[in-house]
Design goal:
By secondary structure, the protein is α+β, with helices and mostly antiparallel strands. The chain is built from 4 helices and 11 strands, in the order E-E-E-E-E-H-E-E-E-E-E-H-H-H-E. It starts with a strand and ends with a strand.
Length: 170
């Protein structure tokens, strides 16, 4: 009954193809600046809200039917029950957005991560965090570990930022 988001990237013939479903995110870092290569699928986005309402749902407290905080996901079948609508028109759809970007010499790195990272740090804060550690000569796996540690909540008895799942790839 629950669902999952996805972010994926394909590199082919000097192009990046980034597919996104949900609120996982991809950024490219070019000359020190974070460039989004995906966009979060949130119920309050006008296009997403329109689809949700057309399928018989509503957006309340920035959640689908007051429940789900994203508008695209795998699973979440309770939001995909309209037999008269194709899957791309259901309240929650698994149709990805795809962004295509040329790769040039200014591209420093690409980051793919789930919302547990982006809920805590902005695109540019993640890029800056990584740039600093690359300049220190740290390996990508160490940088990933440090970033996940940075985004963990300091007190496990409280809810809020730092408690969501975390996955990350540089």
């Amino acid at each position: 009954m629950s669902g999952s988001t996805a972010i994926t990237m394909l590199y082919r013939k000097s192009k990046l193809f980034v597919g996104n479903i949900g609120d996982s995110r991809c950024i490219a870092c070019t000359n020190g600046l974070a460039e989004p290569l995906s966009y979060d699928h949130k119920p309050c986005n006008e296009e997403e809200k329109s689809r949700i309402e057309h399928a018989g749902g509503f957006v309340e407290f920035n959640r689908v039917n007051g429940n789900l905080a994203l508008s695209r996901a795998f699973g979440d079948f309770a939001f995909k029950s309209r037999c008269d609508l194709p899957q791309e028109q259901q309240m929650i759809t698994s149709n990805p957005d795809v962004v295509v970007r040329d790769v040039d010499q200014d591209l420093q790195f690409v980051v793919l991560a789930c919302d547990g990272i982006w809920d805590v740090l902005s695109n540019q804060e993640v890029a800056d965090f990584i740039i600093k550690r690359i300049s220190l000569g740290l390996e990508p796996e160490i940088i990933c570990e440090e970033l996940m540690t940075r985004c963990l909540a300091s007190d496990s008895t409280m809810g809020g930022l730092g408690y969501d799942d975390k996955s990350f790839f540089i």
